[in-house]
């Protein structure tokens, strides 16, 4: 490269160096914010992780409740009897079960409530 070419290059960078640098910085910032692994994507992933942790905690509580219920069904004869009476309609010898129908919504002549 001759001295005229170097002079033109130096003049170009003096005139436009700040603009080029600003554009590069804007591009890098936009990339860091909006890219696939940028700030916004990271925030979204953090929210999803928080939601999943809450779901795991809720499921662990439900699991614990069900485990207690299973233990009760294995070991508590009164609980077993209550379920047999309420859900299966069973009775002790000599008992009589009387089922009372629960009134439903009144139907009109078309058979609709």
Note the topology.
Layout: H1 3-34, H2 39-75, H3 77-86
Please outline what is shown here.
This protein is an all-alpha fold and 113 residues long. The chain has helices at residues 3-34, 39-75, 77-86. It has a domain at 21-86.
Model description:
By secondary structure, the chain is an all-alpha fold. The chain is built from three helices and no strands. The longest helix is centred in the middle third of the chain and has 37 residues, at 39-75.
Order of helices and strands: HHH
- The global form is rod-shaped
Helix content: 55-70%
SS-derived structural category: mainly alpha
Largest sheet: none
* Computed Rg: 38 Å
Subunit organisation of the chains: single chain
Euclidean distance between termini CA atoms: 94 Å
- How many helices? The count is 3
Structural descriptors:
single chain, 113 residues, mainly alpha, 3 helices, rod-shaped
């Amino acid at each position: 490269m001759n001295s005229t070419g170097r002079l033109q290059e130096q003049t170009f960078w003096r005139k436009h160096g700040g603009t080029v640098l600003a554009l590069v910085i804007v591009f890098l910032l936009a990339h860091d914010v909006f890219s696939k692994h940028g700030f916004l994507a990271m925030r979204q992933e953090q929210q999803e992780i928080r939601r999943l942790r809450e779901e795991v905690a809720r499921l662990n509580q439900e699991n614990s409740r069900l485990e207690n219920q299973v233990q009760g069904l294995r070991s508590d004869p009164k609980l077993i009897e209550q379920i047999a009476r309420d859900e299966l309609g069973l009775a002790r010898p000599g008992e009589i079960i009387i089922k009372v129908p629960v009134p439903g919504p009144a139907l009109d002549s078309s058979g609709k409530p």
